[in-house]
Amino acid sequence: MTKIALTHVDIVIPFHDNDPMGIVWHGNYFKYFEIARDALLERIGMPIPKMAEEGFGIPVIESHCKYRQALFFMQKIRVFAHVEEWANRLYFKFEVRDPRNNAVLTTGYTIHVAYDLKKHEMLFEIPKNLQEKIKNALPENG
Fold it and tell me: Is the pTM above the cut of 0.90?
């Protein structure tokens, strides 16, 4: 399935995200990824609360982050999110960029499975309604 760039969010790094050395603590990068992923899901019409209403969730089963440059308090960043796979799992890729010069500061990904919230079982396919929402968000040439 074709990679689709769906959204980005702008974030100003808050003070509480920094470690004692004055740089963003490494675990907070995943928070920035999650903010962008949530914006992407909202944009396609399937935010997390709607998934829960429909009886499923999408827990993370794998994550990765490549820290290219440190981030700092009050720094402005732009986090891009797109989907690379959406049939049997959701594969979200992320880029953190400097909005002033578009330099890539960080890259990463998260992989999710669909999970039945009532039965407490992993689903072996992403629910069709979510797949359709993603397909409908594809660019015309996608």
Answer: yes
Q: Render pLDDT for 49-88 as a digit per residue (tens, 0 to 9).
A: 999 999 999 999 999 999 999 999 999 999 999 999 999 9
CB 120 within 8 A of CB 41: no
Query: What are the CA-CA distances from residue 26 to residues 14, 17, 45 (Å)?
Result: 14, 9, 30
Give the right CATH number for 4-136 from 3.90.79.10, 3.40.50.300, 1.50.40.10, 3.10.129.10: 3.10.129.10
Place of tokens 């959406």: 86
